[in-house]
Structure formats: C-alpha cells, structure tokens
Design brief:
four-stranded parallel sheet; 5 helices
Length: 131
C-alpha cells in the first residue's frame, strides 16, 4: 500500500546549498516509506511556485487527472520555500510538511520541527502520512 503522492518543493540554494545536499535524503526517505514522490524545482521563485501548482494540479480530486491523489506538499528549503509551498497547500487544502534546510528556519523553530536533520524531518512527515 502506498502512502500516496507527495509533491516536494526543493530549493537547492537554501542554506548555502544545504537544500541540494539534503534533497536526495528526503526523497529517498519518503520513497522508502511508500510515498509516490514528485520533485519540483524552479529556476527562480516565480517558476518554482508555478511548477508546484502544476505538479499538484488544479483539480486534484479528478480521477482522470494523472496528478490526482496528491496527499501532501513538502517544502525542502528555508522560510521562503515554506512560504511558497504554504500558499499552494492552502489553495489546494493539502497538508504541508517542512524539511528545514535554510539558514534561519524560523518556521521550523516556531513549530518545534527538526532543524539540521533532514532525514528526521522526512521520517516525521512519512510517519504522519502512514499513520
């Protein structure tokens, strides 16, 4: 049984490159827990948010839409990445997972989420999706 489709927005430049370094760990952890993972990156912020919206789909409840079945969005980056992903998560009424790889990571700090341990953050997200 699959934990469902998860769209992961990766900011490879977050934290001076920690986003790029940690993204493979996050993707691997989610896939090994049964998630169907779709990775999204953009050439800039506008492209990233547009690509995320496309990956999630405008009508994710439509069974004929190949993007249907999206269960969550995951932001792998800093606070700016979280903000972009949150916009789409709210628009689509989807849960948001946060893998903090930025320099400040105020969102993760305020929510008492793992910081500096991308694998632990991904494991927490996978547990929530499988729970």
């Amino acid at each position: 049984m699959t934990a469902g489709r998860v769209v992961v927005l990766v900011n490879p430049t977050a934290g001076g490159g920690k986003g790029a370094t940690n993204a493979p760990l996050v993707l691997e952890e989610l896939r090994s827990s049964g998630c169907d993972v779709v990775e999204v990156r953009g050439i800039d912020a506008a492209d990233a948010i547009n690509s995320l919206r496309q990956a999630v789909g405008s009508d994710f409840g439509d069974s004929d839409d190949p993007r249907s079945g999206v269960r969550a969005i995951v932001a792998c980056g800093g606070d700016g990445t979280v903000h972009m992903a949150l916009q789409v998560a709210v628009e689509r009424a989807l849960p948001l997972g946060i893998v903090a790889t930025g320099t400040g990571d105020d969102n993760a700090r305020m929510l008492d989420l793992p910081r500096g341990d991308a694998r632990a953050a991904a494991q927490r997200i996978a547990a929530a999706l499988n729970g």
